[in-house]
Structures are given as structure tokens and as C-alpha cells.
């Protein structure tokens, strides 16, 4: 089937939907423009049999939905309408939520219902719920649509009926800051965390810290009670700040300064914003680092000879200092005789997305910080490649991109959670890339496929990565089941009676590879290209990074997302050749 996706961005939902549909042999094209004429042009050129809107912030033009089956994926239960569905659900403390597949209509979110499914609403941020439950549920509904509803001649979508007692949703307006506001003198820790969760990752909760207007992101409840005025900053850790509440305290991982006139800001670690952007930064100079079992970006747990190392960096981005800290932990584990297997878990939301573009943009010299950051992450990858006294596992339980999708290949085994999306390329940020990809990727998939993956700028599902050789095994998508199966796989490696033989074979392979071409030469060649890009103020990297950090849309669909009929193009090319 020819399926056109209308989306406001090629986000995680759109990427997953795109690749899931292609996996089932549908021809998929994507249109990201909100311009009505461009949307009409996309329909006329592609002639879709179905239009899906997985992530759309604007209305579908009537001239399209009147003449084409156009279905909207709405992140809410049946009857729910409005642009802040998840926000209201989280803040209202509902325990069950859902996704609804509805037909585009003149009235926003009020079209006929094709399907609706529900899920338990975890105590988590809006972004986390969207990435895990909403996307997974939406994909399930679309597959059900394609496999059953559209094939059933008797199936008819039902109109939205608020008189039906089973319809629990309602229209709710855009949630504004007055509904999100924290009252530090009255709100408990649980209420504060819930408010920030409902605003994550956009727009954040507007608040003030020592007279500075900021948006708050990334909240974690700290149960320890502190005898301090509510709202007071008690200390910091991993760049996060800890603020007192009436019944404990709360960690705030990220801040974003509120817009000042024409001056716009972007998210950074809380302490970085305080030090770099507060007018009264000096008044916070006495803040101390404090211990916490809650706010701890890097955690190590050793079970059955396996060290599970979690590096839960915000949004998966790894700045220079975080890379240094991760490297130190790896080196410490390397010397631990009780550990046979080191399993890299990534974070709770992303495995890794490579270098930290926001920190680079905020640096006094972005080119220099880009160079520091890429070298720091290369050091981590180098340590993994040379970890010849242990077996290493990359547990790809979440999406990964750029260098974060290459780093797992430095491990001996890659065990991915089913339906995880990988973006093993750098081209969309105007970079050649490093992380030893010119050594690691061809070794796994071959030179031809490595070239295709890095030049296409497209994502791929874990199942496809397994087919290509990037992933050794794909485990169950269900979160808890995946972790159970992962532990079994890792403990099996640690207890393998041939463990030392496997390690010896690994050492011999590394020596053989080194004799054929030194590892350092791969890094040198990659970094030579990267430095030329960093040092060129006119390189597209600096422009693309700026747009990424400030969320500036290109207002057009990249050519790589528009469906190309290769057979038709070949026929036309042959005709041109014949006429010549």
C-alpha cells in the first residue's frame, strides 16, 4: 500500500512508524511541511492510498481529508481532545491512558474513531510515556488497521459520542503556565515532580530562582527531608540541583532561561545555566556537591560476575566531562577481578545519542568544545575495543543515534530490545563522524552496507540491524521481560565454561586486526576530517547544530524522506540513455 505520512517533525514516533510500515513492504513517503500547497503537492505526486498523521501539530487541509482517507494518531483516550492530552493526564494523576486513531475532520480531534487502545500510565515524564507506551500502542493500532480494519468490508468507524458512558475523554484546552505553576509553600514533592513530568520535554515549568525566570525539566523525588525553606537550593550533583520541598526535596536536572525579548535560550544542566546565565551567579558559589542515591547519572551494579553500568545522561547526549567519568568507571571495572562481563545499559530513555550539541553550542568556543567532546567519546570507545580481559555487552534497550549508535559495536555482543530505532549516521548534522566507525561498522556489516548506512541518513529498526549484523540478538520489546532475558544472556556469558577461551580468542582477533591496520590510524583519519569541519566556521555542521539546539525547523522535507520509485527512475534513465 502507498502510505503518506504527514508530520510536524521526523521525531521518534514518525521514525518508528516509517520503518515499521516499510518492514511490512508498504511504500512510504513523508511530508513535514505545514504549508497547505506543499501538502497538496505531496498528495498529488505520491497518490497515496492512505494518509497517516503520527505527529501533527497543525490541521490537515479540507481539500485533502475530503478526498483521501486521512487518519490522525492522537495521544489520548477516546473522547479526549486538545493539544495537551498527556500533560493533563499526568497532572490529573490518572492511572490509565491511551491512544486513539481517528479520522481527520473539520473539527480538531473530533473525527470518527477507527480504534482506541489503553495502557497503564506509569509515574514518568511526558516524554518517557510518549517514547515507550504511546509509540508502541500507536504502532499496534496501525498494524491492526492495515491487517484487519481496512480489509474488513463490514467495518465502519464510529462517530465520537459523548453520550456513550464508555467515552471518558473530554475536550481540554492547551495547558498554560498558570496551570503548571509550583507553589513551593504548599506543593508536596510528589505534586512538584508530577507538574514537571507533565511539562517535560516541552514547555517545562516556568519558575523563578533568585529572581531568574527559568523553565524546569527532569525532576526526581529525593525522600530525605531537609530543614530548609521550600524552594531553596541545597546542593548539586551531576549538574542537577536539589531544592527543598515541604516534605523532602527534589532534583532538577535541566533548566532553560525564559526568553528575554528577542534573546532565546535552550536547555542545559541546571548548574551550567546558573553559572553561565544567571546575572547573580556569584551568589551560588558556595553550593556544594551532595551525595544521593537518587540523582546519580552513572550507576554500577555487579551481579553474578556481570557489571551492569547505567549511564543515564539527559536525552542521551554525552558531554566531555560525562565521557571522562564513564571512562573512569570502565577502567575501574577492567581491574575488578570479580567481573567477567561488563554490560553497558545506556540510559533509561536513550542508550546514547553521541556528543552533546547543547553543551557545544553553549561553549565560548564551539569548535574547540566539539574537538574536546569527540576525543572524549573516542576515548570511551577505544577503552571498549581494548577491553581484552573481559567480555563486553551493549544492552540496546532504548534508541541510539550518531556516535551513540556506533559505540555499541565496540562491544563483543549487542543485545537489542525489539523495535528499538537506531540512527548509525552523522550526515544529518553535517559531520563525517568518528567513534572508530570506519573500523567498527564495516567489520560488522561490510564496507558496502556501512557506506549505505552512513550516507542514507535514515533510521533502522533493531530487527533490520540484526539482519545486517549490527545486532547479535533481538530480545522482547516488553521492558521487564527484556531485562530478565538480558540478565540471563549476560550471566550465561559469565558462567560459560569456555569463558577464558573466548577471551583469548578476543585477544588474538584484536592483535590480528592491529597487525593489519593500527587502531590509531582509523581514529587519526576520522578526526582529521572532523577537525576540518569543526574549524571551518562556514561548515554546515555549525548551522545545523544551531538550528537543532534552538529547535529551528528547516520548513521543508529532506529528500531522503520522500519516496523514490527506483524501478520507475531506472526506466526513465534507460529511456534517456536510449534517446541519446
Outline the fold blueprint.
Layout: E1 2-7, H1 12-23, E2 27-31, H2 36-46, E3 50-55, H3 62-65, E4 70-74, H4 85-91, E5 96-103, E6 113-120, H5 126-147, H6 177-180, H7 189-199, E7 205-209, E8 212-222, E9 233-237, E10 240-245, E11 248-257, E12 268-269, H8 270-277, E13 298-303, E14 306-311, H9 320-334, E15 341-346, H10 357-362, H11 366-385, E16 391-396, E17 400-401, H12 403-406, E18 413-417, E19 421-423, H13 437-445, H14 447-456, E20 460-461, H15 462-468, E21 473-475, H16 479-495, H17 499-516, H18 519-534, H19 540-549, H20 566-579
Parallel strand pairs: 1-2, 1-3, 3-4, 14-15, 15-16, 16-18, 17-19, 18-21
Antiparallel strand pairs: 4-5, 5-6, 7-8, 8-11, 9-10, 10-11, 11-12, 13-14, 19-20
Helix pairs in contact: 1-5, 4-7, 9-11, 11-18, 13-14
- Principal-axes shape call: globular
Weakly predicted, low-confidence segments: none
| Helical coverage, percent range | 25-40%
Q: Give the radius of gyration.
A: 25 Å
Oligomeric state of the chains present here: single chain
How many strand segments? Answer: 21
Largest sheet: 6 strands, mixed
Instruction: Kindly report how far apart the N and C termini lie.
Output: 35 Å
Total count of helical runs of at least 4 residues: 20
Q: Can you list the strand order of the major beta sheet?
A: 2-1-3-4-5-6
- Supply the helix-strand structural class: alpha/beta
Q: Per DSSP, what share of the residues sits in E-state strands of 2 or more residues? A: 15-25%
Provide mean pLDDT, rounded. 96
Amino acid at each position: 500500500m502507498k502510505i503518506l505520512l504527514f508530520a510536524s517533525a521526523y521525531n521518534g514516533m514518525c521514525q518508528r512508524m516509517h520503518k515499521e510500515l516499510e518492514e511490512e513492504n508498504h511504500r512510504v513517503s513523508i511530508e513535514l511541511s505545514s504549508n497547505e500547497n506543499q501538502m497538496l503537492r505531496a498528495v498529488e505526486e505520491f497518490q497515496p492510498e492512505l494518509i497517516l498523521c503520527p505527529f501533527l501539530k497543525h490541521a490537515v487541509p479540507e481539500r485533502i481529508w475530503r478526498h483521501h482517507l486521512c487518519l490522525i494518531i492522537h495521544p489520548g483516550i477516546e473522547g479526549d481532545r486538545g493539544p495537551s492530552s498527556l500533560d493533563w493526564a499526568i497532572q490529573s494523576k490518572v492511572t490509565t491512558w491511551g491512544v486513539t486513531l481517528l479520522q481527520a475532520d473539520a473539527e480538531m480531534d473530533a473525527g470518527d474513531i477507527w480504534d482506541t487502545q489503553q495502557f497503564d500510565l506509569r509515574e514518568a515524564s511526558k516524554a518517557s510515556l510518549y517514547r515507550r507506551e504511546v509509540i508502541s500502542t500507536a504502532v499496534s493500532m496501525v498494524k491492526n488497521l492495515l491487517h484487519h480494519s481496512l480489509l474488513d468490508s463490514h467495518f465502519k468507524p464510529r462517530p465520537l459520542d459523548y453520550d456513550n458512558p464508555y467515552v471518558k475523554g473530554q475536550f481540554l484546552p492547551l495547558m498554560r503556565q498558570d496551570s503548571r505553576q509550583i507553589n513551593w509553600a504548599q506543593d508536596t514533592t510528589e505534586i512538584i515532580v508530577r507538574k514537571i513530568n507533565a511539562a517535560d520535554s516541552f514547555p517545562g515549568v516556568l519558575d523563578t530562582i533568585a529572581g531568574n525566570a527559568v523553565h524546569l525539566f527532569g525532576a526526581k523525588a529525593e525522600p530525605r527531608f531537609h530543614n530548609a525553606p521550600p524552594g531553596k537550593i541545597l546542593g548539586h550533583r551531576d549538574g542537577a540541583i536539589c531544592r527543598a520541598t515541604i516534605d523532602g526535596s527534589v532534583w532538577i536536572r535541566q533548566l532553560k532561561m525564559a526568553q528575554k525579548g528577542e534573546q532565546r535560550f535552550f536547555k542545559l544542566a541546571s548548574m551550567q545555566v546558573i553559572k553561565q546565565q544567571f546575572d547573580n551567579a556569584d551568589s551560588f558559589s558556595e553550593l556544594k556537591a551532595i551525595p544521593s542515591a537518587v540523582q546519580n547519572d552513572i550507576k554500577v551494579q555487579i551481579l553474578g560476575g556481570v557489571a551492569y553500568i547505567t549511564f543515564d545522561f539527559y536525552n542521551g547526549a554525552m558531554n566531555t566531562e560525562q565521557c571522562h567519568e564513564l571512562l573512569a568507571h570502565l577502567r575501574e571495572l577492567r581491574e575488578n577481578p570479580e567481573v567477567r562481563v561488563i554490560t553497558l545499559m545506556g540510559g533509561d530513555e536513550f542508550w546514547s545519542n553521541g556528543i552533546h550539541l547543547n553543551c557545544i553550542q553553549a561553549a565560548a568556543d564551539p569548535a574547540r568544545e566539539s574537538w574536546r567532546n569527540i576525543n572524549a567519546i573516542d576515548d570511551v570507545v577505544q577503552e571498549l575495543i581494548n577491553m581484552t580481559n573481559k567480555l563486553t555487552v551493549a544492552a540496546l534497550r532504548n534508541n541510539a543515534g550518531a556516535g551513540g549508535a556506533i559505540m555499541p559495536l565496540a562491544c563483543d555482543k549487542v543485545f537489542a530490545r525489539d523495535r528499538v530505532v537506531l540512527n548509525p549516521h552523522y550526515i544529518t548534522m553535517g559531520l563525517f563522524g568518528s567513534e572508530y566507525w570506519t573500523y567498527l561498522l564495516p567489520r560488522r556489516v561490510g564496507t558496502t552496507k556501512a557506506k549505505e548506512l552512513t550516507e542514507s541518513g535514515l533510521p533502522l529498526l533493531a530487527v533490520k540491524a540484526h539482519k545486517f549484523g549490527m545486532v547479535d540478538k533481538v530480545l522482547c520489546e516488553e521492558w521487564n521481560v527484556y531485562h530478565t532475558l538480558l540478565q540471563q544472556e549476560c550471566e550465561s556469558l559469565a558462567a560459560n565454561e569456555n569463558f577464558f577461551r573466548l577471551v583469548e580468542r578476543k585477544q588474538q582477533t584484536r592483535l590480528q586486526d592491529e597487525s593489519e591496520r593500527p587502531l590509531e590510524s582509523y581514529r587519526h583519519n576520522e578526526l582529521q576530517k572532523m577537525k576540518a569541519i569543526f574549524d571551518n566556521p562556514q561548515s554546515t555542521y555549525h548551522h545545523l547544530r544551531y538550528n537543532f539546539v534552538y529547535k529551528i525547523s528547516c520548513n521543508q522535507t529532506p529528500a531522503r524522506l520522500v519516496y523514490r520509485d527506483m524501478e520507475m527512475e531506472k526506466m526513465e534513465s534507460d529511456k534517456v540513455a536510449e534517446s541519446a
